[in-house]
Structures are given as C-alpha cells and as structure tokens.
Amino acid sequence: MTKRLEVERWNEVFSDLKLGKPQGDFWLEKYEPRLASAQDGPVIDLGCGSGCDSLFLTERGYRVIACDFSSKALEIIHKYIPGAETMLFNMTGGLPFPDSSARAIVADLSLHYFHWDDTVAIVSEIARVVGAGGLLLARLNSTRDVHYGAGQGIELEHHYYEHEGRRKRFFDKSDLERLFDGWAIDVLTETDMHRYGKPKICWELAASVRW
Could you tell me which residue ranges the Methyltransferase domain spans (predicted)? Predict the structure, then answer.
C-alpha cells in the first residue's frame, strides 16, 4: 500500500469514528513521577490518533505536541483538546524535531505498522529527540493479540503481517529487547487493555536513553 493510500485509509477511519471527546484508560497515571522531568518541555504524543493520551497529559498541565499523519485525527485533537499543539507528518520520514528537544515521548499503539528497518529507524529518531536520559513510554502489539490480528494474513517479515489490506507488526519479548538494545528498559510487561470491544493484549514499555 502506498503512503498516500495509507493516509487516505486512516483519514477514513477517523472520519467514521463517532466517539466524541476522547476517553483514556489512564495507563500513563503510574508513570507520572517519571514524567515530572518533562514538565519544563513538551511531551510528544507520537501517533496520537484520537487523542486519549494527549487529553490525559494536557489535563495534568503538560505541554503536549500531538502528532499523526492523519489530518482527520488532528481535527479531533483541535476540537476536543485545544490545549495541545499538533503536527502532521509521517514518522517513517523522520521526526521533525531538533536533537534533545523533548524529555519524553509517548507512542501508544503507533510503532507496530512498519517494516523492521523502518521501525528501527523510528526508534533511533526517538532517541535523538529525547536525548540522553530521555523517556519513552509505549504500548505495542503482542504476538498473543489474537483478537486484533496476531498471526493472521500473509507474513511479510517475522511477526509482520498483511491482512485485509492492513499491515501490522506483533512483538514478542525478544523482538522488543532487540529493538531497544542500548536503551535502559525499566518496564517491559505484557498486559491487556480494554479501550476496544475485545481485550487487547499488548506490551507496555518504559525505557530511557542511556547516558
């Protein structure tokens, strides 16, 4: 699928959503002591979608930059979370932020749509933007996420599938340890979340860039 078609598909997804104001599941709450170091700078919500995490953060006084490559997603942010700044870009082209310009990045279910080399490059860009000691909080698809596509369709790469025109990656623990080699991983745990109709199994990660 070309990037243009992918953008069009996600714009259609967010246009069809009639969710009203975003509702989060408060997964970031336990990381507030870690996020305190980001109070003097922006927290980047990378792949913000409809803005559940941006809402959580802005309501607690953080300066948030909500980023997505869907203009329709950012329209939702503008409507319901006017306190958040927004940026429209595709993260496979790099992150348009200076080195060490943010102390924390949140990537909630947004890092598992890419070929492995692109995923590695995105993680490298995250490290560049948060700088030494900077924080990443992320949730990523688990290989046990059978309700949402794990193991379904054509396997394009190890744990990376195309199913019904959509591409998604699913991670096991060794995949994530390889992806974040060189980072200080403080939390890496498999958990379930209930934002959607069925329980979703995902990995929750808190990691910082080594000095």
Answer: 43-134
User: Residue 204 region, left (φ>0) first, then alpha (ψ -120 to 50), else beta?
Assistant: beta
> Which residues, at least 6 apart from 35, have a Cβ–Cβ distance to it below 8 Å?
28, 43, 57, 62, 104, 135, 137
Which helix or strand (DSSP H or E) is residue 162 part of?
strand 160-163
With contact defined as beta carbons under 8 Å apart, do 160 and 167 qualify?
yes
Rounded to an integer, the average pLDDT of 157-177 is 96
Q: How many CB atoms lie within 10 A of CB 23?
A: 12
Under CATH, which architecture does the 3-209 domain have? Answer: 3-Layer(aba) Sandwich (3.40)
Please tell me whether residue 87 adopts helix, strand or coil conformation. Answer: strand
The ranges assigned to domains in the chain are: 3-209
- Please report the pLDDT score of residue 19 as a whole number: 58
pTM over 0.70, yes/no? yes
Summary mean pLDDT of the chain: 90
Residues 12-22 have a mean pLDDT of 58
- Alpha helices by DSSP H, listed for the chain, are 3-16, 32-35, 52-59, 71-80, 116-130, 173-179
- Taking the C-alpha atoms of residue 29 and residue 22, their distance in angstroms, rounded to an integer, is 16
Confidence grade of residue 173 (pLDDT, cut at 50, 70, 90): very high
The two structure tokens encoding residue 12? 């259609």
Written as six digits, the tokens of 162 are: 């195309």
